[in-house]
Amino acid sequence: MNSITLKSRAKINLSIDVLGKRQDGYHLVEMIMQTIDLYDLIEINEKDNDQITIKSTSDEIPLDCNNLVYKAANLIKKTFNINKGVEIHIKKNIPVAAGMAGGSSNAAAVLVGLNKLWNLNLSNQQLEKIGLKLGADVPFCINGGAVLASGIGEELTPIKGLTKDVCILVCKPDLFVSTKEVYECIDSKDIDKRPNNKFLIECLKNEDTRQLAENMFNVLEGVTMDKHPVIQQIKDIMTNNRALGAMMSGSGPTVFGLYENREDAVKCKAILEKQFKQTFVVACEEKGVEVNG
Ligand code: ATP
């Protein structure tokens, strides 16, 4: 039996701007995304039958055709007329519905994995095109690293990312946020403060983490924070405990802080962990999906 296991990594946003809305309802964005070394393990086992089945260590995600890994496998099967089946096991570490693209990254791993398992010889560019049918973040998740994403998030310009020595403290409060609902609350015409992406990209280029951290901005943060003040509380705990800056990722509710000093990040993790189980200290990563081992 053929099988493959892949790391499927999460992302954080160092900025999000919303520039408008397409007629189909998708928002036009300009945002900086950075892969981090927090990952799910996606094990794909080929089966003799024609079925796609899913198992997971998490009870927070669907195990049927609503799971993004199911949709990814099904799309590959349909596009390339493949009659084989797979059992996909998702070992979840990335918080669910967190603003860290966990589902998109799992889907990206299945595309990369099946491309290898079934010798489809598709280029990453071809995989990105297929991935876009599953979600706007999927193309980014395939390659990962650091990018300026525009369009609906699928036009990717690689940029220099955070340096490996920057410690990222990630904290996901125990509440559910719907990405769709957050975007529905935002009208680009009413936004009065926006990130200066050009400046942020310069900061990354110059490895000036302090300036970067002080100027990160996410236009979605206010929307989610209005409903969930705990986001401000987590930001305050981080900045009062030596973070250079702290911000919500994606549509939330995950908050991350950037630290120059690992000891400080670990100390703050210990404080946050008392209240928020899903708290991690991680570094940035250059690769999105990677074959494990
Ligand atoms: P994004 O940052 O791309 O908006 P997110 O981190 O906010 O994503 P996900 O973890 O991808 O959110 O989950 C969003 C929804 O998708 C959840 O309600 C979840 O039930 C569903 N979902 C479907 N498949 C998966 C999967 N493989 N992993 C996580 N969530 C999934």
UniProtKB/TrEMBL annotation:
<feature type="active site">
    <location>
        <position position="11"/>
    </location>
</feature>
<protein>
    <recommendedName>
        <fullName>4-diphosphocytidyl-2-C-methyl-D-erythritol kinase</fullName>
        <ecNumber>2.7.1.148</ecNumber>
    </recommendedName>
</protein>
<keyword id="KW-0547">Nucleotide-binding</keyword>
<dbReference type="GO" id="GO:0005524">
    <property type="term" value="F:ATP binding"/>
</dbReference>
<dbReference type="InterPro" id="IPR020568">
    <property type="entry name" value="Ribosomal_Su5_D2-typ_SF"/>
</dbReference>
<dbReference type="InterPro" id="IPR036554">
    <property type="entry name" value="GHMP_kinase_C_sf"/>
</dbReference>
<feature type="domain" description="GHMP kinase C-terminal">
    <location>
        <begin position="200"/>
        <end position="277"/>
    </location>
</feature>
<dbReference type="InterPro" id="IPR006204">
    <property type="entry name" value="GHMP_kinase_N_dom"/>
</dbReference>
<keyword id="KW-0418">Kinase</keyword>
<comment type="pathway">
    <text>Isoprenoid biosynthesis; isopentenyl diphosphate biosynthesis via DXP pathway; isopentenyl diphosphate from 1-deoxy-D-xylulose 5-phosphate: step 3/6.</text>
</comment>
<dbReference type="InterPro" id="IPR004424">
    <property type="entry name" value="IspE"/>
</dbReference>
<keyword id="KW-0414">Isoprene biosynthesis</keyword>
<comment type="function">
    <text>Catalyzes the phosphorylation of the position 2 hydroxy group of 4-diphosphocytidyl-2C-methyl-D-erythritol.</text>
</comment>
<feature type="binding site">
    <location>
        <begin position="95"/>
        <end position="105"/>
    </location>
    <ligand>
        <name>ATP</name>
    </ligand>
</feature>
<dbReference type="InterPro" id="IPR013750">
    <property type="entry name" value="GHMP_kinase_C_dom"/>
</dbReference>
<dbReference type="GO" id="GO:0050515">
    <property type="term" value="F:4-(cytidine 5'-diphospho)-2-C-methyl-D-erythritol kinase activity"/>
</dbReference>
<dbReference type="Pfam" id="PF08544">
    <property type="entry name" value="GHMP_kinases_C"/>
</dbReference>
<keyword id="KW-0808">Transferase</keyword>
<dbReference type="InterPro" id="IPR014721">
    <property type="entry name" value="Ribsml_uS5_D2-typ_fold_subgr"/>
</dbReference>
<comment type="similarity">
    <text>Belongs to the GHMP kinase family. IspE subfamily.</text>
</comment>
<dbReference type="GO" id="GO:0016114">
    <property type="term" value="P:terpenoid biosynthetic process"/>
</dbReference>
<dbReference type="GO" id="GO:0019288">
    <property type="term" value="P:isopentenyl diphosphate biosynthetic process, methylerythritol 4-phosphate pathway"/>
</dbReference>
<feature type="active site">
    <location>
        <position position="137"/>
    </location>
</feature>
<feature type="domain" description="GHMP kinase N-terminal">
    <location>
        <begin position="67"/>
        <end position="145"/>
    </location>
</feature>
<keyword id="KW-0067">ATP-binding</keyword>
<dbReference type="Pfam" id="PF00288">
    <property type="entry name" value="GHMP_kinases_N"/>
</dbReference>
